[in-house]
């Protein structure tokens, strides 16, 4: 069901991207990486993915700004924002066009559930 799905992982922390990428690849999904929202947006202009997982706090363009820019440009790919900042809420994420907000300190099974729920329903 999840085979051949494509995920764009956006985070300025290469170590975090590596850990998350490893988890996603165990689900037989293809993972693409971007260091910030600007790089991700450029990637999305010429590539299609099934889901975007993006950090909120990044240089150049935050996850909130990426989500807004995607919606403004007609890119409707579901995006899940990830943050370690407890001040952000799901309502903040949804307001800018994201589908959900995850705590950056998640357990692997939580990440898998979020991915499966969002790529299958898309």
What does this structure look like?
By secondary structure, the chain is α/β, with parallel strands linked by helices. The protein has a single domain (6-121), classed as Rossmann fold. The chain is 43% helix and 20% strand. The chain is built from five helices and five strands; from the N terminus they run E-H-E-H-E-H-E-H-E-H. A five-stranded parallel beta sheet has the order 2-1-3-4-5, with helices on both faces. Helix 3 links the parallel strand 3 and strand 4. Helix 2 runs parallel beside helix 3 (63-72). The chain is globular, with a radius of gyration of 13 Å. It starts with 5 loop residues before the first strand and ends with a helix. The model has no long low-confidence stretch (mean pLDDT 92).
SSE layout:
Blueprint: E1 6-10, H1 14-25, E2 30-34, H2 37-46, E3 51-55, H3 63-72, E4 79-83, H4 90-95, E5 100-103, H5 108-121
Parallel strand pairs: 1-2, 1-3, 3-4, 4-5
Helix pairs in contact: 2-3
Brief write-up:
This protein is α/β, with parallel strands linked by helices and 122 residues long. 43% of the residues lie in helices and 20% in strands.
Output the keywords.
single chain, five-stranded parallel beta sheet
Q: What is the average per-residue confidence, as pLDDT, rounded to a whole number? A: 92
Distance between the termini: 12 Å
- What's the number of structural domains? 1
Structural class comes to alpha/beta
């Amino acid at each position: 069901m999840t085979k051949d799905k494509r995920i764009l992982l956006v985070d300025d922390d290469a170590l975090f991207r590596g850990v998350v990428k490893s988890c996603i690849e165990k689900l037989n999904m293809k993972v693409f990486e971007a260091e910030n929202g600007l790089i991700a947006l450029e990637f999305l202009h010429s590539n299609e993915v099934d889901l975007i997982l993006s950090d909120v706090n990044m240089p150049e363009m935050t996850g909130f700004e990426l989500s807004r820019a995607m919606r403004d440009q007609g890119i409707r790919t579901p995006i899940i924002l990830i943050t370690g900042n407890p001040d952000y809420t799901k309502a903040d994420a949804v307001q800018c066009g994201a589908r959900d907000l995850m705590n950056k300190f998640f357990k692997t099974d939580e990440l898998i559930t979020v991915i499966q729920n969002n790529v299958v329903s898309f």
